[in-house]
């Protein structure tokens, strides 16, 4: 296993990390088997976004006697309520959730305290200027967390956090298709020509700037959604029109500036093994250049590129976000906790669609948007 220094934290983390999806709804014996294999392979970093009490308890037991061998990236602002995961900014709930986490994980500290899911400038300002950041700084001073992190998908909010100097680690969605997407917000006034002169000429300039700023400021990046929620591994669902391999996706992420670790969302031991095998794969197996070279020649007809041409919606629905979350459920064959939470955070949902068809007339790719809204209503129930 190869290790990288996680930015200015000084933590040495394995290139391949472990998301906690594989631990969900599993017995203690299965969780222990995962940890045994991770220890054997040298996988030392794991993300723990979910506050699921059973998972935390099983993991705490599995880590007995070897806790210090692992770097735990555990999240603040997640709680378990009414049998499911919930994001919160309510200070009393944040404190309660953190205390529960330490207790169940049988530890007195966490290497990374990750402020969970900040995807707008408004939310970032709320976090930065409120009790959540004050609490995170107190925990860091007390040694209960080693450094402060933040997770999110919005490059604008992430840039604000990184530039604040308050965040040491960024957990961000990094993959070739997300990076090729146009920015969701008007950032022309923020970028100059140098952002278009870098080798990654097709990358959205805001994302490119984010990676470069992280590298420059010593903010380490841990990667989520390296496989695009599974889309990139499916010829049917991949925006590239053909399946990429896990090796190609992981290699792409690890070659971005500031990236130290890719959290493999392994839902089975086989998937974990496939990610670990990246470390011994040949350069030809990792090479993604040939696959990417054909992307400009691919027809995008019928496939949402999340470009925003469908806007404005008369009902103010963020059509691109609804479609993106719907596509994630198709790739997973279920509704992941994070996807459900993100959908719930949308101000306007698919149920409000009037089926006027204005969006479809503007869509340059012929996406059946009205039908997608109907599917989203059936999937999410709102």
The helix content is 40-55%
Mean pLDDT across residues: 85
Quote the distance from N terminus to C terminus: 44 Å
Uncertain stretches of 5 or more adjacent residues: 182-202, 296-300
How would you classify the helix and strand content by structural class? alpha/beta
Q: Total domains, how many?
A: 2
The CATH architecture term of the largest domain is Alpha-Beta Barrel
- Look up the CATH topology of the largest domain: TIM Barrel
Specify the overall morphology.
globular
Going across the major beta sheet, what is the strand order? Answer: 3-12-11-10-9-8-5-4
Query: Number of helical runs?
Result: 16
- Rounded Rg: 20 Å
CATH class of the largest domain: Alpha Beta
Describe this structure in words.
- This protein has 382 residues and is of the alpha/beta class.
- It has two domains: 293 residues, Alpha-Beta Barrel (TIM Barrel); 62 residues.
- The protein has 16 helices and twelve strands.
- Strands 3-12-11-10-9-8-5-4 form an eight-stranded parallel β-sheet. Strands 1-2 form a two-stranded antiparallel ribbon. It has a two-stranded antiparallel sheet with strand order 6-7.
């Amino acid at each position: 296993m190869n290790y990288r220094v996680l930015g200015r934290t000084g933590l040495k983390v394995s290139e391949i990390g472990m998301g906690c999806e594989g631990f969900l709804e599993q017995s203690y014996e299965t969780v222990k088997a995962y940890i045994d294999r991770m220890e054997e392979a040298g996988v030392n970093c794991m993300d723990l976004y979910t506050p699921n009490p059973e998972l935390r308890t099983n993991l705490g037991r599995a880590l007995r006697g070897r806790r210090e061998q692992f770097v735990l990236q555990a999240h603040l602002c997640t709680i378990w309520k009414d049998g499911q995961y919930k994001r919160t900014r309510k200070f009393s709930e944040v404190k309660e959730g953190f205390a529960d986490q330490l207790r169940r994980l049988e530890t007195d500290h966490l290497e990374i305290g990750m402020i969970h899911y900040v995807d707008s400038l408004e939310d970032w300002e709320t976090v930065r200027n409120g009790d959540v950041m004050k609490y995170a700084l107190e925990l860091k001073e007390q040694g209960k967390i080693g450094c402060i992190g933040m997770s999110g998908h919005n490059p604008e909010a992430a840039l604000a956090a990184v530039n604040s100097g308050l965040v040491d680690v960024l957990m961000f969605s990094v993959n070739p298709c997300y990076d090729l997407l146009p920015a969701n917000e008007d950032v022309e006034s923020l970028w100059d020509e140098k952002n278009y002169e870098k080798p990654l000429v097709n990358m959205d300039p805001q994302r490119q700037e984010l990676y470069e700023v992280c590298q420059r400021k010593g903010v380490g990046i841990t990667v989520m959604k390296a496989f695009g929620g599974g889309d990139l591994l499916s010829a049917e669902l991949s925006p590239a029109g053909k399946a990429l391999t896990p090796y190609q996706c992981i290699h792409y992420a690890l070659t971005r500036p500031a990236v130290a670790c890719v959290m493999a969302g392994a839902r089975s031991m086989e998937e974990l093994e496939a990610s670990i095998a990246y470390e011994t794969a040949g350069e030809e197996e990792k090479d993604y250049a040939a696959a990417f070279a054909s992307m400009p020649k691919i027809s995008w007809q019928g496939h949402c590129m999340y470009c925003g041409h469908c806007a404005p919606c008369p009902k103010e629905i963020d059509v691109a976000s609804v479609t993106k979350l719907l596509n994630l459920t198709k790739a997973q064959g279920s509704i992941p906790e994070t996807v459900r939470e993100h959908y719930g955070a949308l101000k306007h949902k698919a149920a409000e669609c009037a089926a006027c068809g204005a969006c479809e007339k503007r869509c340059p790719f012929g996406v059946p948007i009205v039908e997608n809204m109907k599917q989203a209503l059936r999937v999410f129930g709102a």
